Amino acid sequence: MYSRSELSGRGFGPNGVSVIVHHELVLKDGTTLALKAWFPILDRPGGPTFEHDPIEVYCEPDWKKECRQIKAFPTVLEYIPYGKSSYTIQRDHMRHPWLASHGYVVIRADMRGSGDSTGLYFDEYLSQEQQDACELIDWIVEQEWSNGKVGMYGKSWGGFNGLQVAHNQPSGIKAVISLYSTDNRFTDDIHYKGGCVIGNGMLSWAAVMFTWNCRPPHPKFCNDWKSQWKTKMELASSSWIEQWLSHQVQDSYWKHGSIDQDYSRIQIPVLAIGGWHDGYTNAVFRMVDQVPNCRAIIGPWSHDWPDVALPGPQVGLMMECLEFWNHHLKGEKIKRQDEVKKMIWYQCQGDLPPGPSVESWPGKWRQANNTRPVDVVTFQCGENGELFKRTSSEENPRFCFSKRRLSFNGSSGLWCGEWLSFGAPDLAGNQSFANARDATWTTKHLDRQLPMFGFPKVHIEGYVSKGFKGCLVARLCDVFPDGKSRLLSYGVKNLTHLIHEDQTFSIEIQLDAIGYTVNPGHSLSISFSTGFWPTIWPIPSSPKGQDWVVWMQSADLRLPIVEESTWNKEEEPPLYKVLVGYSILSARFLSFSSPSPSFSVVVGSTVVSLVLSSRMKLVPKLPCYGPSLERRTLRPANFERTLSMGLSNPRNTLQMSNDEGSFLFPTHDMVVGENEECTYSMDGDNANTAKAVVRHEYECVYHVSTADCQKVFITTKCSMRGNATHFFIESKLHVQLNGQTFFERVYHHQIERQCV
């Protein structure tokens, strides 16, 4: 149990918190969902609902503050398949008790077939998953400790299914906070992009879930855990990549769970959160425009929580969530929630040279009531690689340059970074080498800032060789005065079904959304290629070994611009003005749920209390959450990406090693560790030789200090290659218990290619 002094300065609410470590909810079909719950302290948390469940006290009430004696609370639900008793113990410990201290019941549920729950599941976002969530919500609102209002909250999978459950319209759900999710599972998820297979995403994610789906339930909560574990692997351990590759167009498989099929079904308030270095930001723009009651925040973040994510700056995510929940689940009238505009974003300033990591972006927060650009600036591709500005489409008809020939370039994407960044040094590096080999047009040095916000677009016309099958990739870069080039955005389109009978094409490619200001003295470049390996799996050469070729004849680039004079600027808060010239030794939130947030800060030896006007702050800037669990490092985490280019042979190999380390958690008497290695190789520009291999290891040791110690070690190896007609997938699984083989299996799949 934490003392109040240990929680000081972390923004905790006045309520004490009790933890229901494990509760089993039996669904109508007999399947058991495993729940963990955090309660504001009552005589017996949850009353008779949890009378036989183990209880821990996280913290006592803050007796210096008045705690309202109420018996019914709103509930916030996180519903994911990652294991409440193992994989998510650290992040749950930091966030869920914090929210409970502000007067919420927080429930963390393991989905059917995952963690400590029973049953089986066979893919992402199935109807059964959503039906179970609706039944769980119905159960929550019937409990005596519930005020009848439930909010769903989550990142990635938990962000996806929050939207999907809201689309099902259970009566108890009243609001959703969705981080890094999508409205369209085909166009904006980790499987396909622009109608092409994501080479460094689909197999990697399939390998992760192949491993995680074979983790056992915690022996503490399941008497027959070995039998249940083995049955799950025998019936539901196959890699999901077979299903994903079997649906290569946007068919009913992908439309299920895509809320863009009918945005109007989500009438409740939604807070959508995205990051410029995350793979799911495009959907945020569409949801702001299409979901009836949706607002959004986009920061510079990768696929991690905005209060810890890199690149920074980080923000007070939990404070933002608390204010949103207070407004929509407690009915508190918070002026900022009504007045803030629909889109808040961080405009990155292009000061930093390209590199694999960014600690914190320079820039400023902005807001607007829609996602439409104030202006569109058009650049035209001309002769000799010049990219020049067009003043008017009427005065300057589309310029046709001498045709440029594009054949497959196997190295175009080697410096582009990971499709899904988690903030490690995995961002795009200097693009100069790749751009030099591709068809590239560059502007002269800009004489003023170019602030972009929204979707860049390119329009291309040309023709292709007979029988062409392939894609076209467009990449937008900021070229620094020293010649280094930062990748800003890119877009992909599969051309195969867009070619006219005379082999010509006229297409538009929408690049990923961006919030970035190019500095004066820099240049912009646009590059085109027919490959982007390993981000995009290459469509191979023809069966006869001939390269398919694209000839470009004209292209223009349209950039969405926000003028400085029209931006809704965030003023520097009074805190900054008061404390200029002083050293701030500590800062503590006293309240953010009230209309005027208050702080106590230590300036020198003096404690100063300040009240800030909430209209001054677009986002709370001080991250607040609970303390981390104690953990001891057994193997430190390490991340590396390396590229080797053959000299005596043509093979280029990109390797990514993400060792998340191994750690002992004394309070849980458990060790958890994980390691992933991905290898992507190709012989020069020979698309037929592309191969991906992902090796994943997971270790978990239960009851470390007891005679009943159980050591689990799971190894998977997934490989993918293709020829002109098929993909070939091999997935190997080997599971050890206490050093002995417990289960193993090998899966082989051959899947016909449909022009991807």
Automatic annotation (TrEMBL):
Domain Xaa-Pro dipeptidyl-peptidase C-terminal: 322-560
Gene3D superfamilies: alpha-amino acid ester hydrolase ( Helical cap domain), alpha/beta hydrolase, Galactose-binding domain-like
Protein name: Xaa-Pro dipeptidyl-peptidase C-terminal domain-containing protein
Domain of life per record: Eukaryota
Alphabetical list of NCBIfam families matching this protein: CocE_NonD
Record flagged with keyword Amino-acid biosynthesis: no
Keyword Transcription found: no
Organism field: Tigriopus californicus
GO molecular function annotations of the record: dipeptidyl-peptidase activity
Keywords: Hydrolase
